[in-house]
Amino acid sequence: MINFIFNNKFLTAAFITGCCLLYSCENDTKEVEDYTKKVIMQEEIKTVELYMSQNGKMKAILKAPLMLRVYADTVYVEFPKKMHVDFYSDSTEIETTLDCLYGKYYEQFNKVYLRDSVLVITTKGDTLRSPDLWWDQNKKIFYTDKYAIYKSPGKNIYGGKGLVATQDLTSVIFNDPTGTVEVSDSGFPK
Fold first, then answer.
1. What is 38-181's CATH number, 3.90.660.20, 2.60.40.1930, 2.40.110.10, 2.60.450.10?
2. Which positions ≥6 away from 6 have C-beta within 8 Å?
3. Which ranges of the chain have pLDDT less than 50?
4. What contacts 173, CB < 8 A, 6 or more positions away?
5. Among candidate residues 126, 100, 125, 128, the one with its CA nearest the CA of residue 115
6. What angle do CA 172, 176, 177 make, to 5 degrees?
7. In 3D, which of 78, 73, 96 has the Cα closest to residue 86?
8. Which pTM was predicted?
9. Is 65 in contact with 44 (CB distance < 8 Å)?
10. What is the rounded CA–CA span in Å between residue 184 and residue 188?
11. Are 82 and 65 in contact, with CB atoms under 8 Å apart?
Protein backbone atom coordinates (compact mmCIF):
# COMPACT_ATOMS: atom_id res chain seq x y z
CA MET A 1 0.00 0.00 0.00
CA ILE A 2 2.83 2.41 0.84
CA ASN A 3 4.50 1.60 -2.47
CA PHE A 4 1.26 2.34 -4.33
CA ILE A 5 0.89 5.76 -2.62
CA PHE A 6 4.56 6.56 -3.20
CA ASN A 7 4.34 5.53 -6.87
CA ASN A 8 1.12 7.51 -7.28
CA LYS A 9 2.68 10.66 -5.75
CA PHE A 10 5.84 10.13 -7.80
CA LEU A 11 3.89 9.75 -11.04
CA THR A 12 1.75 12.81 -10.25
CA ALA A 13 4.86 14.89 -9.47
CA ALA A 14 6.57 13.66 -12.64
CA PHE A 15 3.46 14.47 -14.70
CA ILE A 16 3.17 18.00 -13.26
CA THR A 17 6.91 18.64 -13.74
CA GLY A 18 6.72 17.37 -17.33
CA CYS A 19 3.75 19.63 -18.07
CA CYS A 20 5.62 22.61 -16.63
CA LEU A 21 8.69 21.82 -18.72
CA LEU A 22 6.64 21.43 -21.91
CA TYR A 23 4.77 24.65 -21.22
CA SER A 24 7.99 26.59 -20.67
CA CYS A 25 9.59 25.36 -23.94
CA GLU A 26 8.01 27.93 -26.20
CA ASN A 27 10.15 29.80 -28.74
CA ASP A 28 9.50 33.41 -29.60
CA THR A 29 9.13 33.46 -33.41
CA LYS A 30 10.90 36.82 -33.74
CA GLU A 31 13.84 35.48 -31.75
CA VAL A 32 14.05 32.38 -33.95
CA GLU A 33 13.93 34.54 -37.11
CA ASP A 34 16.74 36.73 -35.77
CA TYR A 35 18.95 33.68 -35.29
CA THR A 36 18.15 32.05 -38.64
CA LYS A 37 17.86 34.99 -41.05
CA LYS A 38 20.59 35.47 -43.62
CA VAL A 39 22.91 38.32 -42.77
CA ILE A 40 24.40 40.27 -45.66
CA MET A 41 27.37 42.38 -44.69
CA GLN A 42 28.17 45.55 -46.57
CA GLU A 43 30.63 48.39 -46.46
CA GLU A 44 29.63 51.94 -47.37
CA ILE A 45 32.03 54.51 -48.78
CA LYS A 46 31.08 58.08 -49.66
CA THR A 47 32.79 60.23 -52.31
CA VAL A 48 34.81 57.51 -54.05
CA GLU A 49 37.70 58.00 -56.47
CA LEU A 50 39.21 54.70 -57.66
CA TYR A 51 42.35 54.45 -59.80
CA MET A 52 42.48 51.29 -61.93
CA SER A 53 45.78 50.20 -63.45
CA GLN A 54 47.22 47.14 -65.17
CA ASN A 55 50.92 46.35 -65.38
CA GLY A 56 51.73 49.72 -63.84
CA LYS A 57 49.77 51.70 -66.45
CA MET A 58 46.75 53.86 -65.66
CA LYS A 59 43.65 52.37 -67.33
CA ALA A 60 40.73 54.23 -65.71
CA ILE A 61 39.58 56.54 -62.93
CA LEU A 62 36.15 55.92 -61.43
CA LYS A 63 34.31 58.59 -59.43
CA ALA A 64 31.05 58.11 -57.53
CA PRO A 65 29.26 59.79 -54.61
CA LEU A 66 28.44 56.44 -52.94
CA MET A 67 29.87 52.93 -53.13
CA LEU A 68 28.48 49.85 -51.39
CA ARG A 69 30.59 46.69 -51.18
CA VAL A 70 28.20 43.79 -50.51
CA TYR A 71 29.38 40.42 -49.20
CA ALA A 72 26.68 38.04 -50.41
CA ASP A 73 26.90 34.71 -52.27
CA THR A 74 28.55 36.66 -55.07
CA VAL A 75 30.59 39.61 -53.82
CA TYR A 76 29.75 42.81 -55.69
CA VAL A 77 30.34 46.54 -55.52
CA GLU A 78 27.33 48.77 -56.13
CA PHE A 79 27.20 52.43 -57.17
CA PRO A 80 23.54 53.32 -56.47
CA LYS A 81 23.62 57.09 -56.97
CA LYS A 82 25.73 57.54 -60.13
CA MET A 83 29.19 56.92 -61.48
CA HIS A 84 31.66 58.48 -63.90
CA VAL A 85 34.63 56.68 -65.46
CA ASP A 86 37.50 58.13 -67.50
CA PHE A 87 39.29 55.50 -69.64
CA TYR A 88 42.93 56.17 -70.52
CA SER A 89 44.98 55.14 -73.55
CA ASP A 90 48.51 53.73 -73.24
CA SER A 91 49.83 57.30 -73.46
CA THR A 92 47.71 58.25 -70.39
CA GLU A 93 45.37 60.45 -72.41
CA ILE A 94 41.62 60.23 -71.78
CA GLU A 95 40.15 58.33 -74.73
CA THR A 96 36.62 57.55 -73.48
CA THR A 97 34.30 58.68 -70.69
CA LEU A 98 31.35 56.80 -69.25
CA ASP A 99 28.44 58.15 -67.20
CA CYS A 100 25.43 56.37 -65.72
CA LEU A 101 23.06 56.65 -62.78
CA TYR A 102 23.63 53.09 -61.47
CA GLY A 103 26.47 50.59 -61.67
CA LYS A 104 27.17 47.15 -60.21
CA TYR A 105 30.62 45.52 -60.40
CA TYR A 106 30.84 41.73 -60.07
CA GLU A 107 34.38 41.03 -58.86
CA GLN A 108 34.31 37.31 -59.56
CA PHE A 109 33.47 37.85 -63.26
CA ASN A 110 35.27 41.20 -63.72
CA LYS A 111 32.12 42.66 -65.32
CA VAL A 112 30.15 45.82 -64.62
CA TYR A 113 26.40 46.19 -65.14
CA LEU A 114 25.43 49.77 -66.00
CA ARG A 115 21.89 51.11 -66.18
CA ASP A 116 19.82 54.30 -66.23
CA SER A 117 20.99 56.84 -68.80
CA VAL A 118 24.21 55.12 -69.81
CA LEU A 119 26.35 57.45 -71.93
CA VAL A 120 29.76 56.63 -73.46
CA ILE A 121 31.66 59.43 -75.25
CA THR A 122 35.04 59.25 -76.99
CA THR A 123 37.44 62.13 -77.59
CA LYS A 124 36.68 61.80 -81.34
CA GLY A 125 33.04 62.69 -80.66
CA ASP A 126 31.55 59.20 -80.94
CA THR A 127 28.59 58.75 -78.58
CA LEU A 128 26.83 55.60 -77.38
CA ARG A 129 23.58 55.73 -75.38
CA SER A 130 21.61 52.84 -73.91
CA PRO A 131 19.23 52.19 -71.01
CA ASP A 132 21.51 49.41 -69.79
CA LEU A 133 24.90 48.11 -70.79
CA TRP A 134 27.43 45.50 -69.67
CA TRP A 135 31.13 46.32 -69.55
CA ASP A 136 33.49 43.33 -69.71
CA GLN A 137 36.82 44.55 -68.33
CA ASN A 138 38.79 41.50 -69.48
CA LYS A 139 37.65 41.76 -73.12
CA LYS A 140 37.44 45.60 -73.02
CA ILE A 141 34.00 45.60 -74.64
CA PHE A 142 30.53 46.98 -74.02
CA TYR A 143 27.49 44.87 -74.88
CA THR A 144 23.73 44.87 -74.40
CA ASP A 145 20.59 43.16 -75.65
CA LYS A 146 18.53 46.35 -75.29
CA TYR A 147 18.25 49.15 -77.82
CA ALA A 148 21.21 51.48 -78.23
CA ILE A 149 22.00 54.67 -80.15
CA TYR A 150 25.41 55.30 -81.70
CA LYS A 151 26.25 58.73 -83.10
CA SER A 152 29.43 59.96 -84.69
CA PRO A 153 30.18 62.61 -87.29
CA GLY A 154 28.03 61.57 -90.28
CA LYS A 155 26.45 58.53 -88.59
CA ASN A 156 23.27 58.03 -86.57
CA ILE A 157 22.67 54.33 -85.98
CA TYR A 158 19.92 52.85 -83.82
CA GLY A 159 20.11 49.26 -82.67
CA GLY A 160 16.82 47.73 -81.64
CA LYS A 161 18.15 44.44 -80.33
CA GLY A 162 21.54 45.14 -78.84
CA LEU A 163 25.16 45.65 -79.76
CA VAL A 164 28.76 44.75 -79.05
CA ALA A 165 31.33 47.57 -79.06
CA THR A 166 34.97 47.97 -78.14
CA GLN A 167 35.72 50.12 -75.12
CA ASP A 168 37.05 52.96 -77.31
CA LEU A 169 34.10 52.60 -79.78
CA THR A 170 36.41 51.93 -82.75
CA SER A 171 34.25 48.89 -83.56
CA VAL A 172 30.48 48.90 -82.98
CA ILE A 173 28.38 45.94 -84.15
CA PHE A 174 24.58 46.19 -83.92
CA ASN A 175 22.25 43.18 -83.91
CA ASP A 176 19.33 44.94 -85.66
CA PRO A 177 20.52 48.34 -86.93
CA THR A 178 18.51 51.16 -88.45
CA GLY A 179 19.58 54.71 -89.17
CA THR A 180 21.45 56.98 -91.54
CA VAL A 181 25.06 56.85 -92.66
CA GLU A 182 26.70 59.31 -95.04
CA VAL A 183 28.41 57.51 -97.90
CA SER A 184 31.07 58.68 -100.32
CA ASP A 185 30.83 58.50 -104.11
CA SER A 186 32.40 55.04 -104.02
CA GLY A 187 29.50 53.74 -101.90
CA PHE A 188 31.48 53.22 -98.71
CA PRO A 189 30.77 55.08 -95.44
CA LYS A 190 32.75 58.26 -94.93
1. 2.60.450.10
2. none
3. 1
4. 163, 164, 165
5. 100
6. 60
7. 96
8. 0.71
9. no
10. 6
11. yes
